[in-house]
Design a protein that fits this description.
By secondary structure, the chain is of the alpha+beta class. The chain folds into two domains: about 1-235, 2-Layer Sandwich (Nucleotidyltransferase, domain 5), CATH 3.30.420; about 245-420 and about 455-490, ATPase, nucleotide binding domain (Nucleotidyltransferase, domain 5, 2-Layer Sandwich), CATH 3.30.420.40. A five-stranded mixed sheet has the order 3-2-1-5-15. A five-stranded mixed sheet has the order 18-19-17-16-22, sandwiched between helices. The longest helix has 26 residues, at about 360-385.
């Protein structure tokens, strides 16, 4: 049997799988991020390993056959720096939802040249990039930075604890802009020396490559057998794409979660200033990627404001609201936005409110806002020269029909929903299984259903989408001014 574990933004999830891909057991441990200041989002790396150990013990106890391989994945790209003894020096800075390094992005663009960064790295400097966050630590926490010797992300942190290896996968490295050269698929020494001269950067491997074997010490803490192979792992969204079989040229994966991620597999390297050009999760593949800073986070926020009713009740009420949410329009930029506008000071906006609107209208407006954001990104993919032939929808948001239906109606795209929506942990388990056996993801996780657009809603959503695009432009200056006055540091 195989185990896959994924460290996400709000929880760590594990799965126990048979050689035929049957999911025997699931395990979850929830954790919270910290927000020490506006625009800053951090996570305690101690949670990652503690939760892995708990989950591994739980799953091993339910295994009817020996565990023969272990897979790992995690949110990213994150910035966890340690000293020479691999002791974390501060909480990990998260991926693009952490927007602290705006000034450092500007300074690095001035030093290196924005066009040069884009051409060499495949992605522009943004809140998703690793380099500006390293510089932020150097400038704001010099005592901490002086001790920094290694760089980890959640997947590589788990692999290190399990095997002792210091490795990182090629895909994750390609998001460590501007430290990585996407053309050579290797660290770019001149910019590494400029930004992080004292960091020993990890050896690069493919996500499915074996990082090492479970050590005796790790076996005692996890219940896993010593000597079992552990893969290098990768960023959760890419592992989730693997879990759904969305890795052929022309495939677009939509990952519905706390944030929303999109991965398009392309034939050759495509560079666009408003998207992320990355190395793929499988050897010799290339991706264009996009990410929205909030999606499920907005519905969670609304649910909290409403006193935490069941999501099923909110979805039912939203389904009773008509397309267009009875004249409500929302911008989903509640934590700034990543692609395609790259605006850390963008803010959530709701227009058209009257005292007649219901919580169902607001909830539907939030789902529609996410759909409009997806359409904006899809149009940017097409503008960049990418081809979208098949859309695969994954993540918690696929559990009900309403959200995916709204997205298909807004974008005009069919969406294939796989049988298993376990997510990144299943992808990690699959990559682990491939190290010891001949398996195919098509056998593990075949399609379950296809969501098709409702043509009756197209005109309404075309009109609303045009207003959505205008709304950002019309309110940007006001939202930027308000963002500069916001001081609340915690949720």
């Amino acid at each position: 049997m195989y185990i896959g574990v994924d460290v996400g933004t709000s929880s760590t999830k594990g799965v126990l799988v048979t050689p035929t891909g049957a999911v025997i057991a699931l395990a979850t441990r929830e954790h919270e991020v910290s927000r020490p200041a506006t625009g800053q989002v951090e996570s305690d790396p101690a949670d990652w390993w503690t939760e892995f150990c708990d989950i591994a013990k739980e799953l091993v106890a339910k295994a009817e056959e020996p565990i023969t391989a272990v897979g790992v994945s995690g949110m990213g790209p994150c910035v966890l720096i340690t000293d020479e003894h691999d002791t974390p020096l501060r909480p990990a800075i998260l991926y693009g939802v952490d927007m602290r390094a705006v000034e450092q992005i500007a300074s690095l663009n001035a030093e290196l040249g924005a066009d040069e960064v884009l051409d060499r790295c495949g992605s522009a400097l943004s809140t998703q990039a690793v380099g500006p966050k390293l510089r932020w630590i150097a400038e704001h926490e010099p005592d901490v930075w002086a001790k920094a010797r290694r760089l980890y992300m959640p997947s590589s942190w788990l692999a290190h604890h399990l095997t002792g290896a210091y490795v990182l996968d090629h895909h994750s490295a390609s998001q460590a802009v501007p430290l990585h050269d996407t053309h050579s698929r290797d660290w770019y020494a001149p910019w590494c020396e400029l930004i992080a001269p004292d960091l020993e950067l990890p050896e690069l491997r493919w996500p499915g490559d074996v990082a090492g074997e479970v050590t005796a010490e790790a076996a005692a803490k996890t219940g896993l057998p010593a000597g079992v192979p552990v893969i290098t792992g990768t960023v959760d969204a890419w592992s989730e794409a693997i879990s759904a079989g969305a890795h052929e040229v022309g495939d677009l994966m939509l990952m519905y979660g706390t944030t929303l991620f999109m991965i398009n597999t392309v034939e050759d390297l495509i560079i666009h200033p408003n998207l992320w050009g990355t190395v793929g999760a499988l050897p010799d593949t290339r991706n264009l990627a996009a990410g929205m800073a909030t999606s499920g986070a907005i519905t969670s926020w609304l649910r909290t404001l409403y006193g935490k009713p069941d999501y099923t009740d909110l979805v039912t009420e939203a389904g009773e609201s008509p397309p267009g949410a009875d004249g409500l329009l929302m911008l989903p930029y509640f934590a700034g936005e990543r692609t395609p506008i790259a605006d850390a000071d963008a803010r959530g906006t709701i227009v058209g409110l009257t005292i007649s609107h219901t919580r169902g209208d607001l909830y539907r407006a939030a789902l529609e806002a996410t759909a409009f954001g997806i359409r904006h990104n899809v149009e940017t993919f097409t503008e960049a020269g990418a081809t979208i032939e098949r859309v695969v929808a994954v993540g918690g948001g696929t559990q009900g029909d309403l959200w995916t239906q709204i997205v298909s109606d807004v974008t005009g795209l069919d969406q294939v929903v796989p049988t298993e929506t376990v997510g990144a942990s299943l992808g990690a388990a699959f990559l682990a299984a491939r190290t010891v056996s001949d398996v195919r993801i098509e056998d593990w996780n075949p399609p379950d259903r296809t969501v098709t657009p409702n043509a009756e809603h197209r005109d309404t959503y075309d009109q609303r989408y045009a207003l959505y695009r205008d709304l950002y432009t019309a309110t940007a200056d006001i939202n930027h001014a308000l963002a500069r006055t916001q001081t609340r540091t915690t949720e």
